[in-house]
């Protein structure tokens, strides 16, 4: 009997010769609620720059395109056009305040979403290949994975600064699939944001969204994922 839940089975049975061989997971907003620690790091940076703090709700809207874009958005009140046009020296000075603080405090108040540990454990026991595909920079991801004890779960880890492209570009997903020796059509991309959904679709994966994370203040349903689940546990059949 299939280990996959009914909607997952239905998606794949409509595609001849394909069964799910691997899962690719986004990190922030999908597996972990990292905004408390990200916001603390952003806010202390803003205070040192003599600016008003942002707070968790705004930081939650700015997360998703990597640390550099998060810091840029914080410097421009979330205005993406201005954020992209910022002076490199100004960004570097802000990163010099954000990075060491976040590295030191990245697992202080960060939580793991319900259903995550249990599902990762079951999938690992069943021998399903799994990858982490995150826009978070490598230096933070490595420390977090070790702190959480999650490294053994993943056959591949592709971070935001590992390749020239980041999600929503499909390059990280394609690379992770290559590392796991699976076709993207046989893989499921699970994420919380439009970046994950667009990257997953472009790569040819089944796209599964969780609505509890961060999606720039928008409803993830507008990205038309193949499936929306409320817990990772909904991916598999429970008997
Ligand atoms: O660092 C970020 O901005 C978010 O990373 P994610 O891709 O794991 O959601
Ligand atoms: Mg995310």
What is the general shape? elongated
Question: What is the domain tally?
Answer: 2
CATH topology of the largest domain: Rossmann fold
- Bound ligands, named by name, code or SMILES: 2-phosphoglycolic acid, magnesium ion
Q: Rg from C-alpha positions?
A: 18 Å
CATH architecture of the largest domain: 3-Layer(aba) Sandwich
In the CATH hierarchy, what is the superfamily of the largest domain?
A: HAD superfamily/HAD-like
CATH class of the largest domain: Alpha Beta
How much strand content do the residues show? 5-15%
Q: What kind of sheet is the major sheet?
A: 6 strands, parallel
Number of strands: 8
Helix-strand pattern: HEEHHHHHEHEHEHEHEE
Percentage of residues assigned to helices:
40-55%
Distance between the termini: 11 Å
Spatial arrangement of strands, main beta sheet: 5-4-1-6-7-8
Compute the number of helices: 10
Output the structural class: alpha/beta
The unreliable regions are none
Function: Specifically catalyzes the dephosphorylation of 2-phosphoglycolate. Is involved in the dissimilation of the intracellular 2-phosphoglycolate formed during the DNA repair of 3'-phosphoglycolate ends, a major class of DNA lesions induced by oxidative stress.
Active site: 26 (nucleophile)
Enzyme class: hydrolase
Catalytic activity: 2-phosphoglycolate + H2O = glycolate + phosphate
